[in-house]
Amino acid sequence: MVFDRIRENLLKTARAFEEIVERSVNENLARSINTSLTVFSRSCHLLVRRRDLKWFAMTLIVGLIAGTYSSIFLCAPLLVVFQKKSSR
């Protein structure tokens, strides 16, 4: 999601790459967190109400937390670092 927004913003504006990445992350932040919280709430419901799906719900929660964190806070900064190293 963040990379798609970065690509779209690269085509729209001619700013510095870091500014475009920051803007793209800010545009995706609320949507990503809202989506993750919705899935998290349903997974917690499965965890509490459906004992037969307990391990599925736990796996879903762990993957959701890891995926949300990495896509927002790890991938975009690493893209900026790689872009700086490749432009040298």
Structural class: mainly alpha
Largest sheet: none
Total helical segments:
3
Distance from N terminus to C terminus (CA atoms, Å) equals: 27 Å
- So what's the oligomer here? single chain
Give the SSE string.
HHH
Strand content: under 5%
Uncertain runs are none
Overall number of strands: 0
Kindly report the average pLDDT value: 91
Rg over CA atoms, rounded to whole Å, is: 17 Å
Shape: elongated
Helix content: over 70%
Can you put this structure into words, describing what you see?
By secondary structure, the chain is mainly α. It has helices spanning 2-12, 17-49, 54-87. Helix 1 (2-12) packs antiparallel against helix 2 (17-49) and helix 2 (17-49) packs antiparallel against helix 3. The chain is elongated, with a radius of gyration of 17 Å. The mean pLDDT is 91.
Task: Give the structure's gist in a few sentences.
By secondary structure, the chain is mainly alpha-helical. Helices cover 89% and strands 0% of the residues. It contains 3 helices and no strands.
Topology:
Layout (H helix, E strand, L loop, with lengths): L1 H11 L4 H33 L4 H34 L1
What brief labels describe this structure?
elongated; 88 residues; mainly alpha; 3 helices
